[in-house]
Amino acid sequence: MIPSLSMAKGLTLSQLIEKAITNNPEIKIARKEEKISQYQYREAIGKFFPSINLEYKKFSHSDAPEMSFSLPPLPPTSFPLLEKHYHDFQATLTQPLFTGGYLFYNAKLKKAAETAQFYKFQDCVAKVIAEVKKDYYTLSEAKTAVKIAEDYVKAAKNHLRDAKAFYDEGIVARRDYLEAEVKYREALEALTKAKSFYTVALEKLKTDTGIQEENIEVDKLSYKPVNYNESELIEKAFQSNPLLMALRKMKEGANYGVKMSYSQFLPKISVIMGYEKTDQYPGIGEFDETFGALVVQIPIFEGTQRYWRTLEAKENSKKVSLTLKQAKDKIKLGIIAAFSQLKSAESRIKTAQTMVEQAKELLRDSKERYKAHVGTSTEVCDAIAYYVKAEGTLNSAIADYNRSLAELEYFTGGLPASQPPIK
């Protein structure tokens, strides 16, 4: 008996998703990156405001310049132009007036990066949710597989009991008894494998949700027919997939980066206002003044740095464009694959449902024939195996169907409303 199968009420799928959003390390990292991008944008906005600096200096010179003069008949006289030891205090306010668009495009770039990071966070959450859903469906599949294996053991054991009773009475040959015993051993081995599958699936779900101690409540999977159009799913993904939206914003930001690199070649104008207080001038004590200046900076040569930065910005823009195209191709392929798997699983479900009904009838008929001594043990063993296979096929098909829906939901950024099934 697997302990988890006999646990009391535990976490449901929606609760597991909430736990994953809170505990998953990838989501935590993405959330931090989103915060960082917000602060970077605010920093870019702050560069539009004036900067105020306070500066204090204490000077000590080994010598000070002097001025000499003579007025005959007086002897020559000299006096220092600066004190050897003095202090200087200065407060300045600098306001950029024109930067060639550098500040404007820098703010636009950082805003695009902030928005891109928001969509990356949404993509990370959607990816984790899809993974948790697939883990949950796999765990449900494993739980049902254990139940099927337990039924297999029970059916094989009952047949072994009947075969042994008939053999003891001399009604059937020893071969029937041995065949029933082999089938029972196979059932026990199948149960062991099913339990192992369940243990691994449970641990995978716990790892992805970041929980270890809590109980997990797994419902049996159901099949709910949907009718989607592949081309419409691809179109919706191109519009709503968070990763593509993030890359579009990154492309927008890269274009601003190119414009920002061009702004390096333009003049920069700023205004400076300040207050200064010093005692460096001999004979007048403390001296203070206010001043203002209009500063125009014209870049002439910087060792080709601006040229290479411009080329770098252009290459980065091209790189993001290629990344966006690659992502669209991957998402399109993912939707095609998931949609194909969905249709395949749906077909298998319908076939398996018929197989299960036929297998039930075959097993019931085989048991009755065997008890009436008109059938063989081989027929019963084959009927049990056929029934177990049909149940397993149906279980796996339903799990594949739900996993494919989770994949489609991730790729499309949220599945559209299902159209009425085609009759």
UniProtKB/TrEMBL annotation:
Residues 342-369 form a coiled coil. InterPro entries: OMP_efflux, TolC-like. Its main location: membrane. It is found in: Cell outer membrane. One of its GO terms (molecular function) is efflux transmembrane transporter activity. The keyword Glycosyltransferase does not apply. GO terms for cellular component: cell outer membrane; efflux pump complex. Keywords: Cell outer membrane, Coiled coil, Membrane, Transmembrane, Transmembrane beta strand, Transport. Belongs to the outer membrane factor (OMF) (TC 1.B.17) family. This is Transporter. It comes from Desulfurobacterium indicum.
